[in-house]
TrEMBL record:
Pfam families tied to this protein: mTERF
Domain of life: Eukaryota
Keyword Transit peptide attached: yes
Record's GO cellular component terms: mitochondrial matrix
Species the sequence originates in: Anopheles gambiae
Single GO MF descriptor: nucleic acid binding
Example of a GO biological process term: termination of mitochondrial transcription
Family assignment from sequence similarity: Belongs to the mTERF family.
The keyword Transit peptide is assigned to this record: yes
Name by which UniProt lists this protein: Transcription termination factor, mitochondrial
Length: 625
């Protein structure tokens, strides 16, 4: 890019060069405010300030801010939307997300659908618009908004579905309405499962109706709706398999039983005859559950989505005990949300999980099994030892244990406390007196969220904790953190010293924005625009900011406007900045823009090399001119 700029003729108009650059909106406005007449003569041209070019690349903070403003959502929801579309942002401009949100809203689609299906935003805007247009063309649809689940399908699949629906004649106007009438299921529910099995529209209409008639004659209508893919099998195969299942020792017949291999079905019948129980469909070679069955079974048991069941399956690495353990925990009264949240405990063998739950049930003062289930991630012998220690310990005037005492004192849910204690099992080994004394000290001087997130500080004696808190409080006031208790003494002294220096610079109530206004001579609006352009500057120590500003203004004679145009310079190492500025001075270069000093080492070296080459070429021209 730099080389291209050097090759441009001096007579090139500003409009021509302007098209070569893309910048941020806030940065452009700020740059426009401080641009001088000789800006075009700069050895490193600045980015353009056009609003139309500002949509090329946004930082994560900018994307989250725009999502939050568009959807009026929480930070967690906007973070979830960003993570779900992170891969798409490597290929497409970030504006794709906001354009798609506006497009969906313009078509009357609720924000709830966007939260539940965030990856829809990764679809190119033109393709998304085509999908919406095609879905409106689907015949016999009262409300097109109900068809939003189909947006997750490919454009080609939707085109095929609409084309087939227009050509065929079927009661109800389309297959969705026909299936809803035949099964007595609400249309939105049918659409939900139809969208995940859109290939059903590849089936010939006669075959679709014939297979549906056969399945409804032998299966529950609700089961047929959940397993529409079974309608794609040959009619003779479905009829033959259902007849075999009808004459089998099975108590109930499900659609997925039509799809399992014959060898698995035969072995399951043998197990039923020998043991008198429902079959367990396993692979004849590996002896593991069929993945499809496990996923569908988890969806049914936990009432979760296909994505959630897949996430649990992957997290547990396809454990053969998944379904057994879920059924057991549900029988014990553990709610589905807790099972989903603590899925790793499902990898244990069924016998081990039985033993762990039995051990937890012996816990005295147990209010609800859901409160302590996260402990099932531990080994059986560890759990038994912890329960014994808790039962032999009495806390408070009302007999309780450490989990409930900590939860009641901090206001957290017992399940949240148990989850952290399961990760930090030393919390069960700390002496009772130290546990109570430290908890009291922490609650007096720190936020409860910080205490639960950093439990390592409980390992220190109350005397050390009190001494550290007293030292830190003298300097930091109320801004105390648990790490100040457990960090080395040198680190604490360094942190307190930096806090003193920052306090001396900022004063008692002055903020970093006010410091910028006073030090650089800007009004508050301009100072805020600097932080909008480079939000990370807020996290830089004020002492470092002062040193960088002093160096740039006092030693290098740069102006506050130069700093405002490139605030990233404040986040860079002062040592590196001095080294680069000295090197540039040696080769006779004084950049009017500080942006080159902020570049990566590779980009900086390239700039230096091209500068030297250009200087040598100019010297030769002068010699032979």
């Amino acid at each position: 890019m730099l080389k291209l700029l050097q090759l441009l003729p001096k007579t090139c108009s500003p409009l021509t060069t302007r098209a070569l650059y893309a910048g941020a909106v806030d940065g452009g406005l700020l740059r426009h405010a401080f641009r001088t007449d000789d800006a075009n003569k700069d050895d490193l041209p600045l980015l353009d300030d056009s609003i139309s070019a500002a949509t090329a690349l946004w930082k994560k903070e900018e994307v989250l801010s725009r999502l939050k403003n568009l959807l009026n959502c929480t930070h967690e929801q906007s973070e979830k939307l960003y993570k779900a579309n992170r891969k798409a942002l490597r290929v497409f401009a970030a504006r794709l997300l906001t354009d798609n949100i506006e497009l969906l809203r313009a078509n009357g689609i609720d924000d709830k659908f966007i939260y539940e299906n965030p990856r829809v935003l990764s679809t190119p805007t033109d393709d998304l618009a085509k999908k919406l247009k095609l879905l409106r063309e689907l015949p016999a649809v009262e409300d097109c908004k109900m068809l939003t689940p189909f947006l997750k399908a490919s454009l080609k699949a939707i085109e095929r579905m609409v084309a087939v629906a227009k050509q065929e004649t079927i009661p109800g106007g389309n297959r969705i309405n026909y299936l809803s009438e035949r099964t007595g299921t609400e249309v939105p529910v049918v659409i939900k499962f139809f969208a995940t099995n859109i290939r059903v529209y590849r089936i010939a209409l006669d075959k679709f109706i014939a297979n549906l008639d056969i399945c409804l004659a032998h299966l529950e209508p609700a089961h047929v709706v959940r397993h529409l893919s079974v309608l794609a099998y040959a009619t003779s195969s479905i009829r033959e398999r259902l007849q075999a299942l009808k004459n089998s020792p099975l108590e109930t017949i499900k659609p997925w039983m039509v799809r399992v291999p014959d060898i698995a079905l035969g072995k399951s019948f043998e197990a039923v005859i020998e043991k008198g129980r429902q079959p367990v469909f396993k692979d004849s070679v590996t002896g593991t559950w069929f993945e499809t069955y496990v996923l569908k079974r988890m969806e049914s048991l936990l009432g979760c989505t296909e994505e959630t069941s897949r996430a649990i399956y992957d997290k547990c690495k396809g454990s053969v005990h998944l379904v057994d353990n879920i059924e057991f925990l549900l029988e014990k009264g553990v709610v589905a949300e807790v099972i989903i949240q603590h899925a790793p405990m499902l990898t244990a063998k069924r016998e081990d999980l039985h033993q762990k739950v039995a051990t937890l049930e012996t816990l005295q003062c147990l209010r609800n099994l859901n409160d302590v289930v996260p402990l099932c991630v531990l080994k059986a012998y560890q759990l038994k030892k912890i329960v014994n220690n808790l039962n032999n310990e009495q806390l408070g005037p009302v007999n309780t244990n450490r989990i409930y005492y900590f939860a009641d004192s901090t206001g957290f849910k017992p399940g949240e406390v148990t989850e952290q204690f399961a990760r930090r099992t030393f919390m069960f080994r700390i002496p009772k007196d130290s546990f109570l004394a430290n908890l009291k000290l922490f609650l007096e001087h720190m936020n409860r969220e910080d205490i639960l997130a950093d439990l390592w500080a409980f390992k220190y004696s109350p005397g050390i904790v009190a001494e550290r808190i007293a030292r830190a409080k003298e300097v930091r006031g109320k801004k105390l953190m648990p790490w100040m208790v457990r960090c080395p003494d040198v680190v604490l002294e360094k942190s307190l010293q930096l806090t003193k220096e920052s306090g001396a610079l900022l004063g008692e109530n002055e903020t970093i924005v006010e410091y910028f206004c006073k030090r650089l001579g800007f009004d508050r609006e301009v100072a805020n625009s600097i932080f909008i352009k480079a939000p990370s500057v807020r996290n830089v120590r004020i002492t470092k900011v002062k040193k960088v500003i002093d160096y740039l203004l006092d030693e290098l004679d740069y102006t506050p406007n130069d700093i405002a145009l490139n605030p990233r310079i404040l986040m860079h190492s002062l040592q590196t900045t001095k080294k680069r500025m000295a090197q540039l001075k040696e080769i006779g270069c004084r950049p009017k823009s500080l942006i080159i000093v902020c570049k990566s080492q590779r980009q900086y070296d390239l700039f230096v090399k091209e500068w030297i080459d250009a200087k040598e070429r100019k010297t030769k021209v002068q010699q032979y001119g």
